[in-house]
Write a structure and sequence with these properties.
By secondary structure, the protein is mainly beta. 6% of the residues lie in helices and 34% in strands. The protein is built from 1 helix and 4 strands; from the N terminus they run ββββα. The strands form 2 sheets. Strands 1-2 form a two-stranded antiparallel ribbon. It starts with a strand and ends with a helix. 0% of the residues are buried.
Length: 71
């Protein structure tokens, strides 16, 4: 996985067809930093299956050691 979910606003759980504001961070931001921009679209995949789509609302470039990213 290249990202981790930090929080999901609301119930903390997503259901098919649902919407939520999700805060996530990239485990390896150096791979994607130049490709991310507000209003950009993204897909979350499990293998070849798309499990979610979304729109990026904000990008904050903050670097932390990998161990700290997992806390």
């Amino acid at each position: 996985s290249d990202m981790a979910i930090d929080s999901i606003a609301g119930s903390g759980q997503m259901n098919p067809g649902g919407e939520a504001y999700v805060t996530a961070f990239l485990l390896f931001p150096e791979k994607f930093a130049e490709k991310l921009a507000a209003d950009g679209e993204f897909e979350l995949k499990e293998g070849s299956r798309t499990v979610a789509t979304g729109i990026i609302t904000n990008v904050t470039l903050e670097t932390k050691p990998l161990a700290n990213r997992l806390r």
